[in-house]
């Protein structure tokens, strides 16, 4: 739960009340402190200290990721989602012993990584004895990072309660008119009401209200506190300033700094007597506004002096990140040594996976660097860190500060890469369409001094080409291919292994520029290179999979490679890349006539986005909508909108899907026109697989010449690629075009044999449907019924409902009564339940399932019990049997 409201409205009081009388609970608390906002996972480290034993018992991969994030171990920078899963596992394990309540007040002062991790955990809690309560002032960043977390907006007290509080706080009785005026002016803010009455008699408050004097609300409260602070002795004011700027509440650090400034030991007493702070094991300000007032009443030079001394104390204690933060706050002018210290702290944050903290530190390093080249290099690096964390708006803000003239060619190239990636992240129409051209320009700047980065830019350019297609501006796929061939040869690594990026790019360039027959060996080499990627490389190539595999008519290779991206990405917590791979998998399944599998991948994507807090931000798969029965006019409208926004690839798939549905319903002429338009510009999406659809539409619409031409093209691709699927589709085309009965039947049977491959049930069933229809026209009704029954079964399985309806109509036209199978109305499982059931049926443990789906083992057990109840089973063995059926 996120509790948010204005300063003084009572968030801390409400949270404290909620924590009263929690006997038997474990309460973990880590309030936000300003000094740690740039310390990646700082709040999380404080929160988890009591759970050391539970952390030791979570799965090794999660424990290692958490250790690196908290700076306790060395290792690869962990993905934030994996850190979040580790925290979830530790809290769930602790909750098995006794209920756990995690409290974070002043969440607006929590470092970004801790806040994101806690948001991730909060969204995944389901069946665990764990509660997370966060309190924050209204804050746009907090709202974004905790998207999807239930929230309560805490407003002022109701009029009756506010009046009672005011009357109780003032000495004497107040006139009802005065009470009403105070309540109205403060909006029922309890702190404002208390401070208004503090130390005043009823007559004094009445005079203040009737004299229209300013009342203490928000900033005015700070002014009230400022006046109170100024009445304190000089030493006490200095001590308060040290405590306010130190902000963590450490008595040892404040005392050491106070001694360095000559403040006497009795200085805190007056602050406590004034009711501004309490000093026990830690220093606690009565309210955050007091901390702000203390800082505001000091001069700039006083604040800088305190920050400088706090930085020296932090350095002596080995807290270099905190020291760099204080040194930056103490800086009155640009200082290269401080900028360098911030850059080191940024490297440390990045090494622990804290890319947002890295961006923040590098930005400040840029501001403090007197050297123009170094300054703008820091800004570019900050933008790279921000985009790697998915913060595209922040990355663009960093780029706006860069003076391009101050950068060398490598810096300019890196800047262009980030700019293009921001266009993709933000779906900005103009930037999205210009992305390919920008990436080609980046590669030209980088190829001489940073060829590895140039290859990365061109991999992104290939992805941009498939995304925007004909909507791209300033460049074409041929330009990408020419840029690829202008790169210097890639060097082999120490083991003699070539650069897989270079192999993939070489294949793409050949596919675009060379005769197809010449490109095939390079395409095969690319698929082989992708198959042999190390786990630490797989995720980086998620978007490079489809072009070489589909260009070879090898949907199974595409699915295999993308499933590996999903598996490795889930294991490593790279959930944004997993989300992208799931969406591409859905497109792959659509293109081989399996909308049911496509829908399952989209459902997984939606569940994943819910974990990331972006469930409302859906990339529409309009092609799937067409297969699921959405009217063509609606899909066309969606496709038009997507195309105009720059998403040419998604729009193309939607148009093709509508054409296929037209074929299913016998509307051959519009299908033919749609497909012919697509195939005038076959593209990197490997649109040529629509030649098979075009043949069917052409034959049915009386465009035989176009059908024969498409069949010949299909045959050339099948022969050159060696693909059994391409051969099966070609055989189907030849069967449709054959005039001789024996020849047609031979081709139908050859098509069925070739398409009898894993993953192509939809394609095979469509051939059976055509063969069954042909047999019925030959008056071979019994044989036709066999093929049509098999077609109906397969088409129903893959969710191709319009084709299945056509098979039913054919059967009924042949005098066969179609009866739905008895188990057709099996209970529907949610996406999460389906995934849990699938993994459990394969023998995965609850812990393994939880790690794969980023939920706790308790939540897995909860879902499994629901699955068992829905399916009417009681064991995993029964589940495996049911899932196999």
- State Rg: 33 Å
Number of strands: 7
Task: Summarize the amount of helix as a percent range.
Answer: 55-70%
Q: Report mean pLDDT, rounded to a whole number.
A: 90
Oligomer: single chain
Secondary-structure content class: mainly alpha
Report the CATH C-level class of the domain at 568-813: Mainly Alpha
The shape is elongated
How much beta, percentage-wise?
A: under 5%
Q: How would a crystallographer describe the biggest sheet?
A: 5 strands, parallel
* CATH 2nd-level architecture of the domain at 568-813: Alpha Horseshoe
Report the uncertain regions: none
Distance between the termini: 42 Å
Count of helical stretches: 48
Strand order, biggest sheet? 2-3-4-1-5
CATH topology of the domain at 568-813: the name is Serine Threonine Protein Phosphatase 5, Tetratricopeptide repeat
